Every structure is written in structure tokens, then in C-alpha cells.
Amino acid sequence: MLNMEINRIYKRPVFWLLILVGLILALWPVIQTWPPHVVTDRYYVFYPRSAYVSWMYFISPIYYIYVLIFPLLSALAYSDAYAEDYNTGLVKGILTRIEKKSYLLVRYGVNFCVGGFVATFPLFVNFIGEMAAYPLIENNYFFGMALVKQDSFFPELFYNHPLIYTLVRLLLVFLLGGMLASLGLAFSTSVKNRYIVLVFPFLIFMVVDILTATINEKYSLTTLFLQNSQGNRGIPFYLLVGIIGSFIWYYIAGDHNETI
Amino acid sequence: MKRSKMLNVSFSGLSLHKKVLVMASIYCLIAVTCLLFITKKGKGSNCGIFDLMADIGGLMGSTNQLMFLIVAIPLIVLVLIQCIEKSERGFSVVKMGSRFHTWNIHVILTIYLSFIMTSFLLVISFIIAGFFVGFENTWLSYKGTISKMIHNQEKFESIVAHLFTYKIILTIFITKFLGFLMISFLTLFLKQFVKNTALIIIILIVIAGLDGLGTLPFSFFSWAASLNIRNWINPMITVYHCIYLFIVSMVFYGVTGLLYERKDFLS
């Protein structure tokens, strides 16, 4: 089942298209900030520039577009697979060979990982690209690296263990991407229109984001996961509710769905 | 097919998707209320109804750039494509008789949807913003945001005639209507090459994002339908933007119409 899923993902043109979009989003800022351009830094504000501060997560205007399409990137990769199986009748063929519960579990896991991977891919590639352009100088608050301040996400970690900080950031983005992809998958148990399934995480993300931004901006999804701001209890709360909630919804509804 | 019948077919096509329309209206209501609230939070106590509806920065407010990104693009694409896919099914196409009629029904539907959406957006924005800060047009007074921004009494007096309530509402209505129309026609155009709705939304959001970032020296997408202080100081900018939006919509109308003439509905 797992092999079949991986083969299916490789054969999906939309997956490769998303990887291409991710590459463009990742490499455009690298080209813009390639070393000869560093002299354009006004007053050498980032001197001595390192890969950590050049990362698109902190300074790139392209990052704004990445944030806008983030929920679509994560959902588009594989969230409609269940609806596709159901609509084409492929699910009948699969369920004659393996148990329904293991089918549901593998599908959830693969969709989560693929959604998270596609969503994290631009940030990861951009960091690699910036590493090719700039050295990994140890971070120093007084020399051009004051991007992570007191009210930012774990400043001590950024200055003492910048690589771990970057990995933690990537992990959080991966989990958010996976969570949104899982929401799309769970929704596909109720609605079989693939295109609505793919847009659902985007609409949910926007509504929750704008509602939380209205009530308390500290708990906005974008602020917590995709911006350089202080972390709080909202991060584990959203992840737990989103991941466990979508899993329960998907597992129960999927198990009850009459397929054969 | 008679024109009146084409109108009826288009309207009934939209009314068939009641569930989608209800969900879209609820989403729109929540998003617009939140946008107004966020704009109010950023402005403080001294702001009027039009500061909330069409913030002079061009980004915030319930009818500006953020509204296009959060509300207009996803909803237009979703609703329009649902309706189109239904009317392009085998039986419906055979009933229409020709590709030209099918295309014209899509066009009527597009105009109708843009009009309905603009009216709905404007009405709920006006009512909710009115409840938040009152219905008085503060832009007319010297203490209003525009007067403060210009900081020049003579200049303000020369433009105050453009700031009457009905003129502001009319300007917002026309720019939003043309903006929605352009997005709708672009959606119809993209639909000829891209089947996936989510991909179309990604493309439109990327274009809107690039426009918002000022990639080109002029506004070429949703920013042209957003209103900022420059539009109120020099209303001719709004006129040029409206002409631009209309021409782009007509170009997409013509090109997609030509593509439709060769479309194979069976595949």
C-alpha cells in the first residue's frame, strides 16, 4: 500500500508542478540576495551577512506570496486522493486486497507527510540556497543580526543554536502543512467534489486566521507559524486540535463510508 | 435561443447552487466583519465609515486589496467554476445548440455574479461599518482622514466635491464590479487550460500578490481595483484604472470566446 501511494504521488503532474512553484518561490529570493547584490543593503544593515539572516523566512518580499498560497500548496499535493479513489472506484480494487483500516491509516500518514513536505520545500530549498551564498556565521545581536528580538520566537535559541532554531521553524511549518492537508482529506469523507476538497483548507485557514487576528493577534495562525513573532500556547493547541481532530473525523467517517 | 431565455438559463444556473451560495455568503460575512474590525483596531477611535470600508492605504478595509485576496478570488473561482462545470455537461451543451450560446451564458453568469457579489459586499460593509463607527461621512470634514493626510486646506477644498457619500459609494461600486469582472473573465480564460480550481486560485493569488508587491511600475491586477489616497486626490486615476479593468476584461472575453469556438466538450 505504501509503495503504491509513493508511486502514485510520483506520477501526479500536480505534485511536480507544486515542486516547480516551490523552487521558483525559493530560488527567486536567493538570486535577489546573491553576494554581488549585498552592497545594495542600505548602511550594510545585515553586515556580516549570514545564511541565517538571509533566509526568506525573515526578509524576503516573496515570502508574502508564499504565506498567501501556503494552505493551497499543502492541500493540493494529495488531499483529494480519497475523493479521487472514491469517484473513480479505485477504492474497491484497493479494499479487496487490504483492510480498510490500514488503507485509511496509510492514506492519512502519506497525505500528512506529502502536504508537510510540499509546504516546507520552498523554505528548505531557500535556506540551502542562502547557505550556498553566505557562510553560517554565528549569530550576534549587535552585528547586523537583530532580526530576532525579545518579542520574537525563542530569541535565545536563535543566537545560541541557530541551526536548531531553523530546524524547529521548519518542523512547525511542516506540521502546519500536514495539518491543513489532513483537514482537506477529512473533509473529502463528506464532500466528494475534489476541487472543493482542495480549496477547503485554504478557506478554513483564512477564516481562522482572520478571526483570531480580530480577537487576539497573538493567536493568529499566520503570526504563530509563519511570522517572526513570539510563540505561545496557541502552537500546540492548534496542532493538537487540527491533527487529532482531522484524524478522528477522517477515521470515523472513512470507516463508516460504504465503499463496496 | 432568445436573449431572455439565455438570461433565465444563466440565473437558474446560479440559483441551482444554493448550498454553495449560502456557504459563500457566510464566509463573505465573517471575512468582511473581521476585516472591518481589524481595520478599526489599526485606526483607533477617530475614524469614519469609509476609513473602514476603503482605507486610504489601499490594503486594509473591507473593499481593498486584502478583500480581493481573502474573499473575492477564492469565492469567485469556486462559485463560477461550479456553475460552469454544470452547464458544460453533455446534456446541457446539446440543449444549448451552439458553442456561442454556451459561452454567452457563461458571460451573463459572470456579469450577474460580479454584480451580486459587489452589491452584497457593499451592503454588508456599509451596514457593519456603520454599526462600528456610525454612518457619518467623516471624509468631508477637516478632521477627517483625507484632510489630515493632505495637510493643505486649499487642496482639500478643491477635492472635497469628490468626497460626497454617493460619489464614494459609486466609485467603490464601479471599481469593485470591474475588478470582480476581470477576475471572473480571467478565471474563465484559465479554466480553458487548467482544470484544477485550486491551481487557478494559486495563479490568481500569485498575480495579486505580485501586483501588491509593486513588481511592475503600474497596477495591473487587483491593486487597480483597490482605492487609496491617490484615487481620491486625483479621481482621473480611478477613471484610468476603470478603463484599464474594462479593456482587460474585454480582451479576456474575446480571447476566451475564440477558444470556446474550438472547444471539444466531449473530451
Automatic annotation (TrEMBL), chain A:
<feature type="transmembrane region" description="Helical">
    <location>
        <begin position="55"/>
        <end position="78"/>
    </location>
</feature>
<feature type="transmembrane region" description="Helical">
    <location>
        <begin position="235"/>
        <end position="253"/>
    </location>
</feature>
<keyword id="KW-0812">Transmembrane</keyword>
<keyword id="KW-1133">Transmembrane helix</keyword>
<keyword id="KW-0472">Membrane</keyword>
<feature type="transmembrane region" description="Helical">
    <location>
        <begin position="195"/>
        <end position="215"/>
    </location>
</feature>
<protein>
    <recommendedName>
        <fullName>ABC-2 family transporter</fullName>
    </recommendedName>
</protein>
<feature type="transmembrane region" description="Helical">
    <location>
        <begin position="14"/>
        <end position="35"/>
    </location>
</feature>
<feature type="transmembrane region" description="Helical">
    <location>
        <begin position="163"/>
        <end position="188"/>
    </location>
</feature>
<feature type="transmembrane region" description="Helical">
    <location>
        <begin position="105"/>
        <end position="125"/>
    </location>
</feature>
UniProtKB/TrEMBL annotation, chain B:
<protein>
    <recommendedName>
        <fullName>ABC-2 family transporter</fullName>
    </recommendedName>
</protein>
<feature type="transmembrane region" description="Helical">
    <location>
        <begin position="197"/>
        <end position="225"/>
    </location>
</feature>
<keyword id="KW-1133">Transmembrane helix</keyword>
<feature type="transmembrane region" description="Helical">
    <location>
        <begin position="66"/>
        <end position="84"/>
    </location>
</feature>
<feature type="transmembrane region" description="Helical">
    <location>
        <begin position="237"/>
        <end position="260"/>
    </location>
</feature>
<feature type="transmembrane region" description="Helical">
    <location>
        <begin position="20"/>
        <end position="38"/>
    </location>
</feature>
<feature type="transmembrane region" description="Helical">
    <location>
        <begin position="168"/>
        <end position="190"/>
    </location>
</feature>
<keyword id="KW-0472">Membrane</keyword>
<keyword id="KW-0812">Transmembrane</keyword>
<feature type="transmembrane region" description="Helical">
    <location>
        <begin position="105"/>
        <end position="133"/>
    </location>
</feature>
